[in-house]
Amino acid sequence: MPPHEGLVHLEEYDWRDSNVALINSDIDHKVKHQSASTEPAWNNGVIGREPGLFIWRIEAFEVVPWPKEQYGSFHEGDSYIILQSERVKKAADEQGGDEDQDKLVHDIYFWLGNHTSQDEAGTAAYKTVELDEFLHGTAIQHRELQSSPSDSFSALFPRLKILRGGVRSGFTHVETNEEPRHTDTLLRIFKHPSAGAGREYVLVHEVEPTWQSLDEGDVFVLDKGDKIFVWQGKNCAPMEKLKAAQVVNDMTIAKHVEVEVLSQAESRSKVVVDYLGGGDINPLETTFKAPRPVSSATEREAKKLFRLSDSEGQLSFSLAKEGNGIGIEDLDGNDVYLLDAGRTVWVWEGRDASRAEKAMWLKVVQRYVAQQEDAAGVSFAKVSQGNEGRAFVTALQA
């Protein structure tokens, strides 16, 4: 199905407000498979056959390959689809005869920028479902929000960078950050705690080039075009300084400009503050604090496992188990389960779950996430029995 024809299905497959009555029906699978078989992005002889990382941006309802040299850079005005395919050993019960003992496992992320449009987000969601269909329904699907990156997504990009601007949407226009002349760019480099114990990721996020964007706990890179300044807050961490050095190295590969590194504790750091409009600000006497552009969902006290089942004649959603003793043995292949693991809500689809159970999972998880106090920071993902992957197993065991 050509991308523009998919518009009639945007409401049906929009993950924010979905009519899911036909999901997992025979007609649903036939429609999606036909659409997937004609989508150029998937039919290149590589997707589903070879391991690797693949990224596409949604542009005017089209799935457009993202340049490999820009992997790790995302614009807050856009929506993207990211596919990570890895080759792993087959489980003992999957191996047979002389068959290849390896298999490909897939994670699909649809990433929504804070300022992406509804049509771009809807297209990304629809095409994510389509890509999963192309991969025979074996992929783990993740909704990824710019405001709260998951651990698994952050781990894909050692140099994750969020930039302002975006492409022209089919319905709306988002200003790009590509100007005919140079405009000052200010990048904030900061630690983001993961849900795992003791682990942190360092993110790079473009912020407004004003002195109010500065924070003494982080590192900032100011690109003036003919010169680059690195401003180190007095309480910044060594890993943030290291990340800043990597960012500056990437920036200077394409252009040879002077780089000056300044600590907030030295008087010359006022040069950066002045460039950012703070002419009357003394950096030695000022406390710089700015809200983080990325939120952190708080861990809830205990994990919860819910069961979605129609085994008694009608569809029910009920708490099956609570606490940190939840294991794979608590999952029944005849049903669908929702695991609230804190920052991520997982949906596990049993191999023999009914059509009704499979059709309702999306609506159930949307309503559940919306009821959480920290819903803005909660991501969700769906796995199918036999294709769980490491992240889901870790969520169970944590």
Topology:
Elements: H1 10-13, H2 26-37, E1 52-59, E2 62-65, E3 73-75, E4 79-89, E5 102-112, H3 118-134, E6 140-145, H4 151-156, E7 161-163, E8 185-193, E9 200-207, E10 219-223, E11 227-232, H5 238-254, E12 258-263, H6 270-275, E13 304-309, E14 316-322, E15 336-340, E16 344-349, H7 355-370, E17 379-384, H8 389-397
Parallel strand pairs: 3-7, 5-6, 7-9, 11-12, 16-17
Antiparallel strand pairs: 1-2, 1-4, 4-5, 6-17, 8-9, 8-10, 10-11, 13-14, 13-15, 15-16
Helix pairs in contact: 2-3
Protein architecture, described:
The chain has three domains: 1-152, Severin (3-Layer(aba) Sandwich), CATH 3.40.20.10; 185-275, Severin, CATH 3.40.20; 297-398, Severin (3-Layer(aba) Sandwich). 22% of the residues lie in helices and 28% in strands. The chain is built from eight helices and 17 strands. The chain has a ten-stranded mixed β-sheet with strand order 2-1-4-5-6-17-16-15-13-14, with helices on both faces. The protein has a seven-stranded mixed β-sheet with strand order 3-7-9-8-10-11-12. α2 packs across α3. The longest helix is centred in the first third of the chain and has 17 residues, at 118-134. Residues 1-23 and 169-174 have low confidence and may be disordered. InterPro entries: ADF-H/Gelsolin-like_dom_sf, Gelsolin-like_dom, Gelsolin-like_dom_sf, Villin/Gelsolin. Residues 63-153, 203-252, 329-369 form the Gelsolin-like domain. This is Gelsolin-like domain-containing protein.
